[in-house]
Structure to design on (127 residues):
């Protein structure tokens, strides 16, 4: 069974940091294009970042650029989202996604559909 499981969310004060993990099972992330998304109450789903399968290029939403860093460890079959300088506007359910065929040339392509996604981990930024 192919599965993605996120972890690392929680409550953090503004200006703080969190690292989210997304562990894959049943398939190899090395063969997949991957992405991170967030969903805040009352707002549309937002693509945060995506990583190209072909060359490892990483794209970010302007809202998180320079604050968030996405990465993928193929040996551990896990992807990460390091988040710093967190703001209340970063609050939401964060989830990862993977697809064997997506091809990314820019951030806009991060919003492609994905075959697999996790259930998400909640991030709350509040004082």
């Amino acid at each position: 069974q192919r599965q993605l499981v996120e972890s690392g969310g929680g409550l953090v004060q503004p200006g703080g940091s969190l690292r989210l993990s997304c562990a894959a099972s049943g398939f190899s992330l090395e063969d997949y294009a991957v992405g991170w998304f967030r969903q805040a109450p009352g707002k549309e789903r937002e693509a945060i970042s995506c990583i190209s399968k072909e060359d490892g290029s990483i794209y970010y939403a302007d809202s998180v650029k320079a604050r968030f860093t996405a990465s993928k460890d193929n040996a551990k079959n896990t992807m990460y989202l390091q988040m710093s300088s967190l703001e209340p506007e970063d609050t939401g359910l964060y989830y990862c996604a993977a697809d064997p065929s997506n091809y990314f040339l820019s951030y806009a392509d991060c919003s492609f559909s994905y075959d697999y996604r996790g259930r998400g981990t909640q991030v709350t930024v509040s004082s």
Residues 36 and 97 are 6 Å apart (CA to CA). The mean pLDDT is 96. The chain is about 0% helix and 45% strand.
